[in-house]
Write a structure and sequence with these properties.
By secondary structure, the protein is mostly helical. The protein is 87% helix and 0% strand. The termini are far apart.
Amino acid sequence: MKLLSLIRPRAPSVLSLAAVVLLLSGCASTPPPLQEMAVAEAALQRASSTGTSSAAPGELATAAAKLASARSAMAAGQSDRARQLALEATVDAEVAEMRAQSVRSSTAARETEEAARVLREEISRKTPR
């Protein structure tokens, strides 16, 4: 009988402790994604400054829209959603930057090919046959 009397008084304290831990963990909120927001802002600024708006306007607009949504989510206290949107905005800004670079590279390649063609024509005209 003494064994049961020793166990029973402790059972409510263990249950109380478990309940307190659950309550505290439920009250804990995710910290705001300040670092992710800063990285997204920097990525969007970098993409915007490289002439991306003319070469990849759709991708740049998508990144800007996601960053705006991340700001709204953060203001509403939705830290997890804000973090996810900020990460997506960062990736979208990088995609816009790469797309713009690809367009510039393709343009440069076409110009080089055209210059080589013109040079070949000049050489063939000046070469005596």
